[in-house]
Amino acid sequence: MSNPADPCPKSAVSHGVGLAGLAGLGLWTLVARHYGMDGPNAGFAAVVACGVPMLLWSLLVDRVHRNASTGIDWNAPPRPWRTVLDVSLVKIAGLWATWLAIAVFYCIARWYWSGDYRFSMNLFMGAAPWLVAASVPYVIWLDRRLIEPRDASYAFGQWVIGGNADRTEVAHHARAWAVKGFFLAFMVSIVPGNFAGVVAWRVEDAFSHPVALASFLIAIMFMIDVCMATVGYMLTMKPLDSHIRTANPLLAGWVAALICYPPFVLMGNGGPLDYHAGGAEWDVWTQGHGVLQWLLGGWLVLLTGIYAWATVAFGLRFSNLTHRGILTHGPYRWTRHPAYLSKNLFWWFSALPFLSLSGSLTDMVRNCALLGVTNAVYYWRAKTEEAHLGTDADYRAYSDWMERNGMVPRFFRRVAGRTSAGAAQPAE
User: Which InterPro entries does the protein's record reference (predicted)?
Assistant: First the structure.
């Protein structure tokens, strides 16, 4: 319950933008289900159907382009294009060099040319000529309106052409685009499968059994998460106030994040942190127990719903390893890391690692220990994110408010026998 005397700091994103994207995605999913469109292109169309309403809401309702954090002064007349051309050409050179470096990385990394990643590469190759052509007028148009066009992109362009570049800004540009290049390819690659997984379900099958219903609803939540997150990586733009303020400069933050994603993932099948050896998923252990299936399936749906809600709350700004504005609404009023918390709880209740098909105590201990290590990785990720975002006064204000008012921090303080951070009392 909120405390009127201690209001939560304002969120950088409104509720409406995420709900608008959710409505667009839902409408397209119904159309695709009706016409049986479950191919890769229909999947990517879901991203567009999700992104366009969010973009329109952001501009027409939230008017994010008017935010001071965009760095754009819409009240001043645009500069003559000739006065910014030198700066713009340097930025275009840096942008093209960035894209070239990402393309070379894609060529070197063989995993991008097989499996689901192939769809990403085909899409990027088709979009590349259009992006290159559009980048010239876009950069010039933006530079005419930016209060200070000599930003990180300009510094990187100066470094590319051998000029006197601010190395701090160069590093910021490189980190930001490394995040976008790595994660966008992954997100695009998993969109078709997640979308097809929802469209292919028959309603009569989904409602035939509590396990089937839970699986169907969980598939919907994951589709929402993937589509919304992909929009976030695509629409990283200053006029939308969704640009990257800073990318995490901590090596520990990058290591903690990358080991959770292909090809570096450690928790996958056969990986060193695979916690499924000799085990089975929840549906196996609940066979023949209808009430238990309803209860456990409902709990897993709820956890997945919180996970998807945490992504929806980002609106246009979802991204790993970056600061793109501080969220304080939705599930972020309960805890600083609702996605991590719900995801890790989901794994415990879906995998049930303390049970083994073979009855092997070794498998039970191993699986519980490895899932515990996986949880520790996400705790590590959370702490590196807090260290990064802690350089922003808005995040520090939010973090302090959360310690005082957040449902999850208060719960753990109560468990630990504390009434406030750092103030101990006898357990009740």
Answer: UstE-like
Separation of alpha carbons 135 and 176, rounded Å:
18
326 by Cβ neighbours in 10 Å (0-12 / 13-18 / 19+) ranks as buried
pLDDT in tens, 96-145: 999 999 999 999 999 999 999 999 999 999 999 999 999 999 999 999 99
d(CA 337, CA 340): 6
Is residue 115 packed enough to be buried (19+ CB in 10 Å), middle (13-18) or exposed (0-12)? exposed
> Residue 120 to residues 48, 125, 193, 317: CA-CA distances in angstroms?
15, 9, 12, 21
Pull the structure tokens for residue 85: 């051309």
CA distance 78 to 92: 19
Q: Which helix (H) or strand (E) holds 24?
A: helix 15-35
Concatenate the DSSP letters of all residues of 106-144 into one string: HHH-GGGGSTTHHHHHHHHHHHHHHHHHHHHHHHHHHHT
pLDDT-derived band at 325, boundaries 50, 70, 90: very high
Tens of pLDDT, residues 231-258: 999 999 999 999 999 999 999 999 999 9
